[in-house]
Predict the structure of Serine aminopeptidase S33 domain-containing protein.
Amino acid sequence: MITTLTKEATQVITGPAGKLEVAVSEPTGPERGALGIVCHPHPLHGGTMHNKVVTTLGKLFQGMGLVTVRFNFRGVMRSEGRFDHGNGELDDLLAVMDWMQQERPQQEIWLAGFSFGAFIAAKAATRVPVKKLVTVAPPVQHFPMRDLPPIPCPWVLVQGELDDVVPAREVLEWAEARVPKPVIIRFPQAGHFFHGQLAELRIQIEAALRE
């Protein structure tokens, strides 16, 4: 059970394409009785649950009192299966959510994702009940995010304006047109990976989530 784990424990669970590698972290702030799940960038471009933006989002959730899970999508490190262009990866996320809710029943779920992971988290938030959503550098140009139905939960979107992977203008135009619209946080001097600005990234997202 999650309640017996130490500050962080890595293990494998059963996923839809085989084993999924997950890292469960205990809260570092006062517990709020919620679960946080963080999704990593594109598996075919070096994305793993150890990405620095992903671990920053995980620490953010821990500090806000959430039991937090980072996990590797299918085909990444110890997770079995092959890349499935977002369809199977959504199933992976839903499997992690189901597992977490079995371990900690009746607790709300917060989702976060970076780049490709932002697409998967946003897609999940249109399918199942989610309390809060954080998307960092969502790949609007590269995946069918314009086709997503309305996202009903409170939602924070973060975009670096010097992003050379995800075109910032397209992301911001898409976000401004959404109904309901997310809280939009712009980083004028940040590229895709927020080098040198991860601490500020955490501070600004936490402030937005607490409002």
The CA atoms of residues 99 and 115 lie 24 Å apart.
